[in-house]
Structures are given as structure tokens and as C-alpha cells.
Design a protein that fits this description.
The chain is mainly alpha-helical. It has one domain: lambda repressor-like DNA-binding domains (434 Repressor (Amino-terminal Domain), Orthogonal Bundle), CATH 1.10.260. It has 5 helices and 2 strands. The chain has a two-stranded antiparallel ribbon with strand order 1-2. α2 packs across α3. The longest helix has 43 residues. It is elongated. It starts with a strand and ends with a helix.
Amino acid sequence: MYEYDHTGNIVPLNPPHPGGAIEMELEERGMTVAQLAEATGLPVEKLQALVDGKADFTTAESIPLQHYFGYSWDHFMGLQKLYDEHIVIAAKRKQWLKEQKRSKLLFWRKHRNTAAAF
């Protein structure tokens, strides 16, 4: 399923954490996180946190990974941006729904006697 972001672009409704892209690459290549760390010069702990979805991509990690995997310069940063936007939109949507529910409840409490008269 898809939705529109703040600029009108179509985006996946629930994008996965961008670390999943690294995990898929590792599986396809039969590599471990430790082997990728050695090949890219990045710390094993940071790469593992990215793969586990517990850390966000920064340019410092993105550039060596893009060079190693052969992606364009903004591949991982684009995935991170999409994921971050989804998190913000989901939180705002949840807050909006909560406010709407509260508004309706207050409306019905205020007008319940009026509605009973009909």
C-alpha cells in the first residue's frame, strides 16, 4: 500500500528501516556483518545496529556502503529520509486521530440531551 508524502510523492505506507537493505545485500552475497565491516572500514557495532534497525544512517556510514555495494551517492540516505518521514507522519496521524475522537466525544456529550429529544 502507498500514501502521499508532504511533497505529493507516492511512498510506501510502512517502509522498512533502511538497515533491511544491508541485511538483504549481505544474505545475497553470503556475507556477515563482520566481513562487511572489514571491507568498508566501518565499526561492526554500528553496522549491526543499522541492520537491526536500532541506528539511523548518517553520511559517514552511507558513503562507504554505497561505494561497496555500487549504489548511487544518495541511496541509503534516501531510504533513511523515507523511513524518518513515515515515522513523523504516523505520529502526527495518531495525534490527529486522537484529537478527532476527543472532539466527537465532547460534541456528543454536549448534545446528548438534544439528540434524545428527537
